[in-house]
Amino acid sequence: MKEKKQLKIGGIIDGVGWNYMGWRHPDMPANASENIDYYVQKAKRLEEGKFDTIFLVDVSHIGPGMIPHYLSMFEGVSILSALSMVTHSIGLTATIATSYADPFTVARQMASLDKISNGRAGWNAVTSNPGGLANYSRTHLSKADLYPMKKEFLEIVEGLWDSYEDDAFIRDKESGVFYDHRKMHALNYRGNYFSVDGPLNISRSRQGRPVIFQAGSSSDFMNIASKHADGVFLPADNLEDAKAFSQELKRRVELEGRSFDDFLLAISHNPIVGQTEREAEEKFQELQALMPIYRIQKPKLFGSAEKVADQIQSWYEAGAMDLLLIRQEHPLGFDDFIDLVVPILQERGIFRKEYESNNLRGNLGLPYPENRYSI
Ligand SMILES: Cc1cc2nc3c(=O)[nH]c(=O)nc-3n(C[C@H](O)[C@H](O)[C@H](O)COP(=O)(O)O)c2cc1C
């Protein structure tokens, strides 16, 4: 059993919503997915709710029939850089696919976001859908390449983030010593997919390096995540599945010689909450009425705030969820959750009333990763 940390909560801001009809709601700007004012407003609201992190999902190829959010949206690191300037404590996590990006660029981009935000960056590393191969000039590769490629990608990014030891930069104007060259390390990585010399030209941040999340479900996914992730974003519709994932990941994380206490299981939910069951039902019907040809399912977390808080508590206490990622189904979903459910979770001592730390690792209760060359 894990040593119990408080529950962690993140907010997935997906513009007009992760459904077909949300954009038509009177309270939703129809261009929310490309509207920075909307993102700023939501980011500030999540920070008022003491959420651990903003979490942005992504897509690598689109076509007709996809949800409106995917059809016209911002790129994640760009939004998060802007949001870093209007927030102070909340984490900033972007999804970037290892199948399509370039490892040197991602290492540099994420390390820059980490320094710009004073240690609040997170990266959700996904393989993504193979459909993206055609957008990123990689049609010579196939689905079977994606996990071997991801393994190399992560080894490179982690290696590049250790390019400089923590005390490498002296910047002493008097003596003229800018840095200690013995504390700069090249990587010289040679793989089947990538070849990267390094070093990376940016020093480590207040939290050492960005937090690494990974999303997926297969055995290959779990093998790589057990070694190279601080947390995983899992598909789990029910508590039994989540518990089974948790047990299997525990086994694999411990096989890597790591403590499972330092590993977070993230599950997403799209609660519809009201002061009463009836109010939640009205919100659900309001959404359904926006586009009667598409039906959405009633979410798992549904009903009065008290009932939703009970459900969250049972997942958390079963060790099946360390980080709850909230998505808004209804355009006021974050507001309802923050106003109605968060105070109950705080009252029960499950969720924080104040941020504990000034960086993402600190708030998530993750240890500081020592530079491999300093140990
Ligand atoms: C919970 C969860 C979240 C995911 N989020 C994204 C995402 O934001 N963008 C993306 O391109 N793929 C996303 N994926 C897809 C994965 O990257 C991966 O392509 C897919 O799960 C297939 O790998 P698997 O067989 O290991 O599950 C997600 C998958 C899961 C399970």
Automatic annotation (TrEMBL):
Q: Please provide an example of a Pfam family that matches this protein in its UniProt record.
A: Bac_luciferase
What is the designated name of this protein? Answer: Monooxygenase
Which Gene Ontology molecular function entries are recorded, alphabetically? monooxygenase activity; oxidoreductase activity, acting on paired donors, with incorporation or reduction of molecular oxygen
Q: Which InterPro entries match?
A: Diverse_substr_monoxygenases, Luciferase-like_dom, Luciferase-like_sf, NTA_MOA
The record lists FMN as bound by: 58, 95, 147, 217-218
Query: Luciferase-like domain: from which residue to which, for each copy?
Result: 24-294
What's in the keyword line of the UniProt record? Flavoprotein, FMN, Monooxygenase, Oxidoreductase
Tell me which family the UniProt entry assigns to this protein.
Answer: Belongs to the NtaA/SnaA/DszA monooxygenase family.
